[in-house]
Amino acid sequence: MSEEKKSLNFIEHIIEEDLRNGFNNEELRFRFPPEPNGYLHIGHASSICLNFGLGLRYKAPVNLRFDDTNPEKEEQEFVDAIKRDVAWLGFEWNHECYASDYFPQLYLWAIEFIKQGKAYVDSQSSEQMAEQKGTPTVPGTDSPYRNRSVEENLELFERMKNGDFEAGTHVLRAKIDMASSNMLMRDPIMYRIMHKYHHRTANNWCIYPMYDWAHGESDYIEQVSHSFCTLEFAMHRELYDWFLDQVRDSDKVRPKQREFARRNLSHTIVSKRKLLKLVQEGHVTAWDDPRMPTISGLRRRGYTPTSIRNFADTIGIAKRENLIDVSLLEYCVREDLNKSAHRVMGVLDPVKVVITNYPEGQEEWLDAENNPEEEVMTYRKVPFSREIYIEREDFREEANRKFFRLKLGGEVRLKNAYIIKAESCVKDEEGNITEIHCTYDEDSRSGSGTEASMRKVKGTLHWVSINHAVESEVRIYDRLFTNEAPDSHKEKDFLEFINPDSLKVVTGYVEPSLKDAKEGETFQFQRLGYFCVDRDSNADNLVFNKTVGLRDTWAKLADK
After folding, report:
1. 272 annotated ligand binder
2. Residue 401 has pLDDT above 90, yes or no
3. Is 262 noted as a catalytic residue in this protein?
4. Max Cα distance, the chain (Å)
5. 271 among the known binding-site residues?
6. What is the pLDDT of residues 199-256, one digit of tens each?
7. For residues 530 and 332, what is the distance between their CA atoms, to the nearest angstrom?
8. Partners and quaternary state (predicted)?
């Protein structure tokens, strides 16, 4: 049976229908329009993959346009981070654009609105305007300033631009319909006064356009054919179209706004305001803290661009919001790293093993495969000696038949090395095991081809040679929130659900092949999970972040 062709999502159906109805394929143009008031998060990744994916599918340009209309919250740091994230995901934009590039044109259009009686300066307070707007079931009432003369409106608007008034004293409103069933159409604000430094225009402007005014007109200036946004903007579409109707030339492309559903991720917050709170209040170290759902945080934790693109492709585009289990994202990174990450050995909770019949002072370097998924197998050397570390949980004095690791009188194979047998153990005054004394079968070395090397034992342990081990700082990350929907509880603060065990820092010991590992390199610590080198690493202190375990342990906890 032949493989079925992948079906189109509803966004692609919209484009295909437009093309069938005569829209010129050469005029297709898309955009990704982030506001530079924070770092991009996993929710943005879906939008990035959608818009740039459409560009690749239809061989159409995609602009990266910054919606920089609010200097109170926007910074160059966020612009730079957004550009890094989009590029890291593997996408190239056609033009780097800014809404602030269009401030002069937006201002000239606003002047024309005033001259045509389609806009006026309102001098009410924000509280008065809110009261005067009515409710969804009660029509609004006209502002007492709605019928100001064109001349007065032009003069006031010019003075607003020149900085003659304090913030909040005047706004420019579009004159539409105070009785509209869509409250967004009840004379929406186009401009407000803000005496703030802008990261691109400095102090050149004292008035700044509102999103609804700037966004659609920016799409139009760039000749974006399809403007895709999330469902909360569905009610804004009528206003988007109204503004376009006032400025559009019939011989130019008219942008079309369409909406898709957010894909919320379990155990995660994707509100920029709440993410900022996490940073400002010190619940995390920064926007790129590996516990954060930001693209920068995921990159630092060891996620790959491929894993995030695969995740976005797997969850797809839909018309209804739903909650995606974060385990799907973790599955995607496991699948990708399984193909690419070298297998190495590290011990995070060490206990000393002394192989009593191995000659003192002797060492040997054993062959270890880097990744069994490689088409052409490559190998590295790992040192073996009389004293090694194993994980503390891999030894018990007594255990039942289902315990396949090391126990007194029992045998295990050391990965890439020998079969050992536990003979005795040493304890401190408190009863903690400090040493395990073992013997080894010198003919059982892995790959040697001897009969003893073929002998089957049920357990295989990872280990490191104590004399050669590299001490490392290992940061073990878990989900930041214990609740699957931490911001869905109206009666509770989302901070109440912060996981107190979201970060544990331990001292681990890794094989010497990792001594010169570079920032961002990812490895599978055998039997433990996937880890990557953190940017805090240096020649004197190797730092690893745990990306994800080898299997979903949360699922087991949930079942219990």
Report:
1. yes
2. no
3. yes
4. 101
5. yes
6. 999 999 999 999 999 999 999 999 999 999 999 999 999 999 999 999 999 999 999 9
7. 13
8. Monomer.
Residue 365 tokens read as: 């370097």
104 labelled as ligand-binding?
A: no
Contact yes or no for 259/228 (Cβ under 8 A): yes
Is residue 259 within 8 A of residue 251, CB to CB? The reply is no
- 67 is known to lie in a ligand binding site: yes
Neighbours of 529 (CB within 10 A): 21
Q: Give the bridge partners for 437, in sequence order.
A: 354, 424
User: Tokens 């994202």 appear where?
Assistant: 329
User: Cα(191)–Cα(195) distance, rounded to whole angstroms?
Assistant: 13
Choosing from 83, 200, 262, 396, which is the catalytic residue?
Answer: 262
With 0.90 as the threshold, say if the pTM is over it.
yes
The answer to whether 352 is a known catalytic residue is no
Distance CA 548, CA 128 (A): 53
Amino acid identity of 378?
Answer: T
Report how far residue 58's alpha carbon sits from residue 51's, in angstroms, rounded to the nearest whole number.
11
Identity of the amino acid at 195: H
Backbone angles phi, psi at 235, to 5 degrees: -70, -20
Sequence-distant (6+) residues with CB within 8 A of 261 are 230, 231, 317, 318, 319, 320, 321, 322
The three-class DSSP label of residue 389 is: strand
Of these residues, 12, 35, 435, 473, which one is catalytic?
A: 35
The residue from 29, 175, 192, 272 that is catalytic is: 272
Is 372 assigned to a binding site? Answer: no
Give tens-digit pLDDT for 125-146. Answer: 999 999 999 999 999 999 999 9
- β-pairing, 503-510 vs 346-347, is antiparallel
Token output for 88:
């890291």
**509: nearest Cα among 540, 462, 544, 470:** 470
Alpha carbon distance 439, 450 (integer Å): 18
Is position 35 annotated in a ligand binding site?
A: yes
How many Å apart are CA 114 and CA 173, to the nearest integer? 10
Strand partners, 476: 504
The label of the residue with tokens 């192989």 reads 355
